[in-house]
Amino acid sequence: MTDADESPSPADGDAAASDSTLTRRRVLAAGGGLLGLGVAGSAYVYLELQGDDGDYVAPESFPTLSTRGTFDGDGDAQFDGEYPTPRTDDAPVADEEPAVLFVHGFQTGREEAQNQAYTAEVGFSDTERPLSTAVYSWDSDRDWGVAKSVADTNGRALAAWLADRSGPPIHVVAHSLGARVTCEALRTLRETDESTPLASVSLLGAAIPRQSVERDGRYGAAIEAAPPPVANYYSGNDRVLGWIYRFSDGTRAVGETGITDEDAAPDGYVDVDVTGAVGDHYSYYEPGEGCLPAVAERLP
Asked: Cys-Cys link to 66, which of 61, 119, 137, 198 (CB 3.0-4.6 A)?
């Protein structure tokens, strides 16, 4: 797989990726060979996967939009139709709230998804834009190839929810593989010509190919057609993307390097280098250490 691989849908190529799916266990096994460091290499990869975002714990009832339980461990659909229907299992996501919908990434369970979104809310409270936050919670705790396929389907589910929302504009903040969910949602909205209350899209450590956001890439036209701006926050210190994602997918992530060719960027897209503020894959939204002040400053 190369940069030119524009993050295909399952029908376009993820079936092949699923044959060599990436789990944390398999990453550990591969890490030594990848880095040429044997046991030390595996330990390095393990530590990168165990990075923390400050260990904040969400309140017992946290606003949650969920599609959990709609895919089995092999990624087979447990629902009727083209996509699952997002539901509010915990505190309802009201039309007038929240200001931010946080879309989590790979290997994130239900409670951890809520904790991450709450961490982002705490982080925003330390900026000039304190923003209430809810989480889009999905079945990302699967093998890597399966999780990418599930992300694509959840993009269509998220698009449907956004199209039906009657409340004020909402900011979508997506971390890691959550960027795939979000960009697939933008792609669906463009295909269906739906208007949405999107206020902005912020991608943090996006685990999607860097050429996929170019004008001629998989998401380029969708980004250009999106009403709000799309900002990509990337860090050269993101070793999960720099080593593990690059090894597993054979391509560079836009969350590590930014877009390949600035001249190919679609209208409305901007790269923001936050290497100085973000030390690892898990600290983009960490209060006091991440890039949420930069995100808040750029929000319309």
From this structure: 137
pLDDT digit string, tens, across residues 162-172: 999 988 899 99
111: number of Cβ within 10 Å: 12
Q: Is pLDDT above 90 for 185?
A: yes
143 CB contacts (<8 Å, ≥6 apart)? 18, 21, 22, 23
Q: Which of 258, 261, 220, 216 is nearest to 241 (CA)?
A: 258
The mean per-residue pLDDT over the stretch 258-278 comes to 97
Predicted local confidence at residue 8, as pLDDT? 42
Phi, psi of 20 (to 5 degrees): -130, 55
Burial of 109 (0-12, 13-18, 19+ CB in 10 A): middle
Q: How many whole angstroms separate alpha carbon 162 and alpha carbon 65?
A: 11
Nearest CA-CA partner of 210 in 186, 188, 179, 237: 179
> Span 177-199, mean pLDDT?
94
Q: What is the dihedral of CA 32, 148, 284, 224, to 10 degrees?
A: 130
Omega before 98 cis (within 30°)?
A: yes
**Confidence band, pLDDT 50/70/90 cuts, at residue 98:** confident
Q: Amino acid identity, residue 252?
A: R
Predicted pLDDT at 9? 40
* Domain extent listing, the chain: 15-298
Non-local (6+) Cβ contacts of 242 within 8 A are 236, 253, 256
**Any bridge partners for residue 65, and if so which?**
136
Confidence of residue 69 (pLDDT cuts 50, 70, 90): very high
Stretch 23-41: mean pLDDT, rounded? Answer: 39
Burial 41-54 (b: 16+ CB within 10 A, else e): bbebbeebbeeebb
Best CATH choice for the domain 15-298 from the list 3.40.50.1820, 3.40.630.30, 2.60.120.260, 3.30.559.70:
3.40.50.1820
